[in-house]
Design a protein that fits this description.
The complex is a heterotrimer of chains A (461), B (471) and C (103).
Chain A: H1 16-29, H2 34-49, E1 80-81, E2 84-85, E3 100-105, E4 108-114, H3 116-120, E5 124-127, H4 128-134, H5 136-142, H6 152-160, E6 163-169, E7 179-185, E8 192-200, E9 205-214, E10 226-235, E11 240-248, E12 254-263, E13 268-275, E14 280-289, E15 295-304, E16 309-318, E17 324-333, E18 338-347, E19 354-364, E20 370-379, E21 384-393, H7 397-405, H8 410-426, H9 432-450
Parallel strand pairs in A: 3-7, 6-8, 7-9, 8-10, 9-11, 10-12, 11-13, 12-14, 13-15, 14-16, 15-17, 16-18, 17-19, 18-20, 19-21
Antiparallel strand pairs in A: 1-2, 3-4, 5-6
Chain B: H1 36-45, H2 50-65, H3 102-111, H4 115-122, H5 131-145, E1 148-151, H6 152-158, H7 160-166, H8 177-185, E2 190-194, E3 204-205, E4 220-225, E5 230-236, E6 247-248, E7 251-256, E8 261-268, E9 275-284, E10 289-296, E11 301-304, E12 307-310, E13 316-325, E14 330-339, E15 345-354, E16 359-368, E17 375-385, E18 391-400, E19 405-415, H9 418-425, H10 431-447, H11 452-470
Parallel strand pairs in B: 2-4, 3-5, 4-7, 5-8, 6-9, 7-9, 8-10, 9-11, 9-12, 10-13, 11-14, 12-14, 13-15, 14-16, 15-17, 16-18, 17-19
Antiparallel strand pairs in B: 1-2
Helix pairs in contact in B: 1-2, 2-8, 6-7, 9-10, 10-11
Chain C: E1 2-8, E2 16-22, E3 25-31, E4 37-41, E5 56-57, E6 60-62, E7 69-71, E8 88-94, E9 97-102
Antiparallel strand pairs in C: 1-9, 2-3, 3-4, 4-8, 5-6, 6-7, 8-9
């Protein structure tokens, strides 16, 4: 990454009237119904009453303030640059097979598709503005249903989005292939606000992959962008919702995402994330379990290099009895990359008969790398089984020894162990091709580590 | 305000806002509230060297400048102006038996403490039975070996240079708000110096000291274990200690030089009106071993996180802690281990109980500096919930900046297992007996590291607390 | 290697410290009671506290965040919670100008 450091303007002054006008213009440009504009504006007003983070909050204490801007401005919608039509670069996560997809580039819809099979099941995957026009009742029913915004970014996310998507599986629908929501960060200057509303109705089964990529042309940017993603996952009773988020944003972006889930009775939700790009990637994952039989499985994978910082802020919030949740984060850190994990299991007094667990494992491959795992438990019910575990260390020397004893060179042995370590997370991604892409990206990130001077890693146990 | 004249020399003449002048040095109790005058008065009473006075005054400024911590327990009810910052300990037993809350008397009765000793407990452990005789013998033995075991006030008078060399080097006055408060108004506490190669065979206990003035709300303890020495210090008392003043804020600094071995055991059982806000920190040099054994049973709110800084290779730090929170209590306790040097090791074992609406919190920090390769650390926290009204939190923090380390943390929260209960009840135990037995087993790993007499009483106290909760 | 003028002699009283910039780095410039000048990195090794904003007492400066003391003549941390040294810089006086050498 030998690129000049881009400017990252901090704490831009917020001009409420300007924002209101811009949001209205944005909404009108895509022909949104009045109620959707009203939703945006109400969210905007909510955001305006909220404060930015100060760094005093526990989950922000380790975030370098100069690397995560406190700003909210409408992203410019790309389309035509200098009179030339926009180029559509291949997306690194472009699927081989899919049940439906929406591909947006710099806030402009490039492709939409839906398989006959999915269509016959009544499945919808559409840009949010279009869905609001064509399925107003459905969208209105679920918009904001996940609850109040988590914080100011999340609130702005509901107001300012230029890349929205609506994904819906009706009652009992079963879609086997995954649906894809692809986003490409191309040439548009400015910030990006994504918003995904994902609904699996009763007994429906749905899997969605949300994939962000930066084209090579993103290197022409002259300012580091802020990329915010709000995802709202609603799994009604008995539904099974699989969601995977992978990103390879421009390496100087500040990425922040808010993924929230609500899990109905006997419903299951799987959230899997894989982070590769951005300078700082801060993922917030918040799942509310209020119904018996509900279950949430959250998995995070990352490989950091350079000076990347990768943060996870998660909450497994048990507000009702009889649900289960599990969190598993595995990260590999090379060069001077840093990881931070705040994982909270919160059991309210009503959350009896709960089982909730979390595990964070960080492999440090280079001297400059570091990890701060902070697993937390707040338990107000007694009939529970809760645990957390965290570990930080190098590649297990016993495993290395075992492989080397079988004639495998040290470098390759290390690579095998690292890939095995990450496989448990990657295997949860519901698409075989996507798993391969993730594997390749892992390889790519590890490559920079290999180029370093050989160290004396084997000598230590 | 109580003022009692004594023959002590007057060391300082100045104006005090409370209007007392020449008899300052003789006061047994300063009026409530905190000010520069109060700090001056404490320093006068103790006839301290000027550097200590200046240190106190500076610490007071730090205390005033620092905001109240916003994490941990609820501290907003502490009224700093409603506290006596200096009470000569001999004056403490003025709190009459009638003032003692009923539940403490009950506990004394249940523990079978004789009437006369109950009164003694009120005055602080300094008035422990026969302690003079016991102490006399121990003192001779220690003196022979060159061990210093004094009240910190006395040490400051008799060994000022030794105190000055180490005082505030482990916990500076501005470390945190309550360390600043303690530095400003400290009184009492123990000073221990163990010469190179000396092993102190018996646990040193605060109540062996003859001078009862060393028991206080703001005691300051300093332990220096010279190279290759060994010492075990025990503070506190299993029987509940009633205090009418609601704030206890101690500072304990320990220096474990090369090859030394220090164990510091605390059993805290303050009455349920006390805020117990304590800073404890040790440094361990090459091949030294520092162990904190920390038991928290009493107080309204305890915030205490004994720390070990592992400064040189081979150092080992260990924290064994047990906390039990009952009705109206919040035990916010934990441990901090900082791996400064390579090839250092640490173990944290924490067991907590929450019952009867109580709240137990484990809060910890494990830090490994860049370059501290070959460190190993294992953290284990287990919490047991005894009923549905209580709360348990676990907030461990790990900051790992070195790759060649082996760091593991595990925590669990659970209730008493139905299967275990069933198994025991099938063998004829009542549910209550079975629960007690399971709890005993749960805390066993910590209890067994306590001196025997403490272990026995600790178990009985936890059972008493459970009787209140489940009985 | 370069020298940068950061202050005038009369701007810094004996027994005081101030924060200056040289070579793109923040530096705590300290003048002890005897008039000697010392320059150390303006960043506590414990929690990045700004040492130059702390109180200078003799040849020790106190971090305003958590009270760690540093010896300004050597950069050594004298008390916890800081461990490890801060960098020291060479200070020269030319006429009335206080200059700091950075690389």
């Amino acid at each position: 990454m030998t690129q000049a450091t881009l400017e990252m303007p901090q704490e831009l002054e917020i001009k409420p009237d300007e924002l209101r006008a811009q949001v209205s213009a944005l909404s009108r440009a895509t022909g949104e119904p009045d109620w959707l504009l009203a939703f945006r504006l109400a969210s905007l007003e909510q955001a305006l009453t909220m404060e930015w983070w100060t760094g005093q909050e526990e989950s922000w204490r380790r975030t370098p303030p100069e690397r995560m801007p406190r700003r909210a401005r409408v992203g410019r919608v790309g389309g035509v640059v200098n009179g030339a039509p926009i180029a559509v670069p291949p997306h690194v996560f472009a699927p081989q097979a899919h049940a439906g997809l929406v591909h947006q580039i710099d806030g402009r819809v490039a492709t939409t598709d839906l398989s006959d099979r999915a269509a016959s099941e009544g499945v919808i995957i559409q840009p949010l503005s279009a869905a609001a026009r064509e399925h107003p009742q459905l969208v209105q029913q679920w918009l904001g249903a996940v609850g109040s915004p988590l914080d100011r970014y999340d609130a702005f996310g509901r107001a300012l989005w230029t890349q929205g998507v609506f994904v819906y599986a009706p009652r009992g629908a079963v879609v086997e292939d995954s649906l894809f929501c692809l986003v490409t960060q191309n040439v548009a200057q400015g910030d990006h606000w994504h918003y995904a509303l994902v609904v699996a109705e009763r007994e429906a089964q749905l899997s969605l992959i949300d994939a962000g990529d930066a084209s090579d042309r993103a290197s022409e940017l002259d300012e580091a962008p802020l990329i915010h993603t709000s995802v709202e996952l609603l799994a009604a009773d008995g539904a099974q919702l699989r969601f995977a988020s992978v990103q390879r944003w421009h390496r100087q972006s500040a990425a922040i995402s808010t993924t929230r889930g609500r899990v109905g009775r006997d419903a299951s939700i799987w959230i899997t994330t894989a982070a590769f790009g951005a300078d700082l990637d801060k993922q917030r994952i918040d799942v509310d379990l209020s119904q018996p039989g509900g279950s949430a499985e959250i998995r995070g994978l990352f490989v950091g290099d350079g000076r990347q910082q990768i943060e996870h802020v998660t909450r497994q919030h048990h507000t009702g009895a009889g649900a289960n949740s599990n969190l598993l984060i595995r990260g590999v850190l090379t060069e001077e990359s840093q990881a931070v994990q705040y994982g909270l299991i919160r059991i309210e007094p009503e959350g009896q008969q709960t089982s909730a667990h979390q595990t964070m494992r960080n492999l440090l491959l280079d001297d400059g790398a570091g990890a701060d795992p902070i697993p937390m438990l707040e338990i107000e019910a007694d009939d529970v089984k809760c645990s957390h575990a965290a570990a930080v260390g190098p590649v297990d020397p016993d495993q290395l020894f075992y492989l080397q004893a079988r004639g495998i060179p040290p470098k390759i042995a290390e690579r095998l162990v690292v890939r095995g370590f990450l496989a448990e997370i990657a295997d949860a991604v519901p698409d075989a091709h996507m798993r391969e892409v993730i594997d390749e990206l892992v390889e790519g990130q590890l490559h920079s580590h290999d180029e370093q001077a050989p160290d004396d890693r084997e000598g230590h146990g | 305000m109580t003022t009692v004249s004594q023959d002590a020399p007057v060391t300082r003449r100045s104006e005090y806002e409370y209007g007392f002048h020449d008899d300052v040095a003789a006061l047994l109790k300063l009026p409530k509230g905190l000010s520069r005058d109060v700090v001056h008065a404490i320093s006068d009473i103790k006839e301290e060297p000027d550097w200590m006075r200046q240190l106190r005054l500076k610490a007071l400024d730090h205390f005033n400048a620092r905001p109240m911590p916003e994490w941990g327990g609820a501290l907003d009810e502490i009224d700093f102006n409603d506290i006596h910052y200096y009470v000569r300990a001999t004056d403490r037993d003025e709190s009459s038996w009638d003032d003692v809350p009923e539940y403490i008397k009950d506990t004394y009765d249940k523990l079978g403490i004789p009437e006369a000793e109950k009164q003694g407990l009120l005055a602080g452990v300094g008035a422990q039975y026969d302690s003079e005789v016991v102490y006399h013998n121990i003192r001779e033995d220690l003196e022979e070996k060159g061990v210093l075991f004094l009240g910190t006030d006395q040490a400051l008078r008799e060994h000022p240079e030794l105190v000055r060399e180490y005082f505030t080097t482990v916990i500076p006055p501005n470390d945190n708000k309550f360390a600043a408060l303690n530095t400003a108004v400290w009184s009492g506490g123990s000073f221990i110096y163990v010469p190179p190669g000396v092993t102190v065979d018996i646990p040193l206990q605060a109540y062996f000291r003859i001078n009862s003035e060393d028991m206080g709300q703001f005691e300051r303890t300093l332990i220096i274990a010279d190279e290759g020495s060994q010492v075990h210090y025990v503070e506190g008392c299993t029987a509940p200690i009633y205090s009418s003043d609601s704030l206890h804020s101690a500072v304990v600094e320990i220096i474990c030089k090369r090859g030394s071995n220090v164990r510091y055991t605390t059993i805290q059982n303050w009455s349920n009106n006390v805020y117990n806000l304590v800073t404890k920190r040790a440094t361990a040099y090459r091949d030294a071993v520092m162990t904190w054994v920390d038991g928290n049973l009493g107080s309204k709110l305890t915030m205490k996180y004994p720390a070990v800084y592992l400064m040189e290779p081979g150092a080992h730090g260990e924290v064994l802690s047990i906390a039990s929170a009952g009705q109206g209590q919040h035990q916010d306790a934990g441990a901090k281990i900082v791996h400064v040097a390579p090839h250092t090791t640490s173990v944290i074992t924490s067991k907590s109980l929450s019952m009867d609406g109580g709240r137990s919190t484990y809060r910890g920090l494990l830090k490994v500096y860049d370059g501290a390769e070959g460190c190993r650390s294992n953290v284990r926290c287990d919490a047991l919930m005894l009923d549905e009204h209580s709360r348990s939190d676990t907030y461990p923090t790990m900051e790992i900046d070195e790759k060649r380390v082996d760091i593991g943390h595990e925590a669990t929260v659970s209730k008493v297992g139905d299967e275990q209960l069933f198994y025991l009840m099938a063998r004829g135990l009542s549910e209550q007996e079975a629960t007690k037995m399971i709890v005993n087993g749960f805390v066993e790993p910590i209890i067994k590291s306590l001196p025997l007499e403490y272990a026995v009483e600790m178990n009985r106290l936890i059972e008493l607390q459970m009787d209140g909760a489940i009985g | 290697m370069s020298f940068e003028t950061v202050a005038r002699m009369d701007e810094i009283e004996p027994g005081s410290a101030r924060v200056v910039e040289a070579g793109g780095q923040s530096i705590a410039l300290c003048r002890t009671d005897d008039g000697a000048l010392y320059a150390i990195e303006n960043r506590c090794t414990h929690d990045d506290g700004p040492l130059g904003d702390g109180e200078l007492d003799g040849d020790r400066i106190e971090c305003p965040r958590h009270g760690a003391l540093f010896d300004v003549t050597t950069g050594r941390a004298v008390t916890l919670p800081a461990i490890g040294r801060v960098r020291c810089f060479t200070v020269t006086v030319e006429g009335d100008d206080v200059r700091i050498e950075t690389d």
